[in-house]
Amino acid sequence: MTDAIEEPPAKKWLSGTTLRVVTVLPLIPLILWMMFAAPPWVWPAFVLVAIAIGGYEMMAMKEPSSRGLRAWGAITSLLFGYTVVFVNDAAALYAAILIIVLGSMTWSLLQEDPLHNASVRIGWLLGTPIYVGGTLSAVAMVRSFDPTGAWVLLTMVLAWGSDTSAYFVGRTYGKTKLAPRISPKKTLEGSAGGLAAAVVGAMIMSFFLPGMQLLDAVALGVLGGAAGQAGDLMVSVLKRSSGVKDSGGILPGHGGILDRVDALAFTGPATWVYGHFILGL
After folding, report:
1. Under 8 Å between Cβ of 30 and 237
2. What is the DSSP letter of 244?
3. Torsion angle, alpha carbons of 19, 24, 29, 34, to 10
4. Could you give the count of Cα atoms lying within 13 Å of 233 in the half-sphere of its Cβ?
């Protein structure tokens, strides 16, 4: 009897990097259209969909077995984001906060698991809509800055330009760990490279943004780049404390929405604050 010949393990059809590119590439024309040419409500509506998914993912990390709590995370995040983006009224925002607080307390009281888990659950129920809906709302609001869409692109440049540069610089030159308990692969050298890329990206974008001076570009590059790195670390903390690798699986090769917009969720508010309060947009 002849010995069975072991076949080599099947190769993956797509590598991780290739899969990421294949996933995102078809979306680029649609996203650019929504940013620059679509009716004014389309881009905010798209962001609100991302907010709802992000809220669902956030609660799923803590309450994976409860469909109700995951749905509540999506609903409250959407409610908070919608109120900030479309209503923009203090009384409406207060009403939304009351709904979130009272509903979250009710949901928590109805759960049957041990009482010692209640405080953590309440924290997630209250924090999810504010964190997801509150931060990503800025990505919708910066589209109203003149010229239309350019500030959204700047926000993306600050977030993903910094993230990409930090990865490659850290991989090549990184020696000093930045936050080993949170993300062991991140380094100070990579962080510095990410900040430098954010500044350069903001300087390039300033040529297309009337009213932004070179000093503003440098300041916003540092602020946005640092905020993006903080957002990246924040999501890493949430995932590690929840014992998950990715926030979800909706984007093959990228994980979930929160994995993809972790930096954007912080550069968005940084860009909006600078544009609104410093530049008066």
Report:
1. no
2. -
3. 170
4. 18
Lowest mean pLDDT among 59-68, 81-90, 116-125, 167-176: 116-125
The domain segmentation of the chain, as residue ranges, is: 39-144, 146-281
Give yes or no for residue 7 having a pLDDT over 90: no
Q: Which helix (H) or strand (E) holds 177?
A: strand 177-179
- Residue 17 to residue 178: CA distance in whole angstroms: 24
Longest dimension (CA), the chain: 83
Q: Are strands 183-187 and 177-179 parallel, antiparallel or unpaired?
A: antiparallel
pTM of the model: 0.90
Tell me the pLDDT tens digit for each residue of 26-64: 888 999 999 999 999 999 999 999 999 999 999 999 888
Identify residue 149 by its one-letter amino acid code: G
Angle of helix 42-62 relative to helix 134-141, nearest 10 degrees, comes to 160
Across 30-44, 104-118, 122-136, least confident range: 104-118
Token couple for 93: 């925002």
Q: Using only C-alpha atoms, what is the Rg of the chain?
A: 21
Residue type, 28: I
What DSSP letter does each residue of 54-91 carry, written as one string? HHHHHHHHH-TT-HHHHHHHHHHHHHHHHIIIII--HH
Question: Which residues partner with 200 through β-bridges?
Answer: none
Q: 193-244: per-residue pLDDT in tens?
A: 999 999 999 999 999 998 899 999 999 999 999 999 999 999 999 988 888 8
SS3 210: coil
* Alpha helices, DSSP H, located in the chain: 16-24, 27-36, 42-62, 67-82, 90-110, 118-128, 134-141, 150-156, 162-173, 188-205, 214-242, 257-260, 264-273
Highest mean pLDDT among 20-24, 79-83, 86-90: 79-83
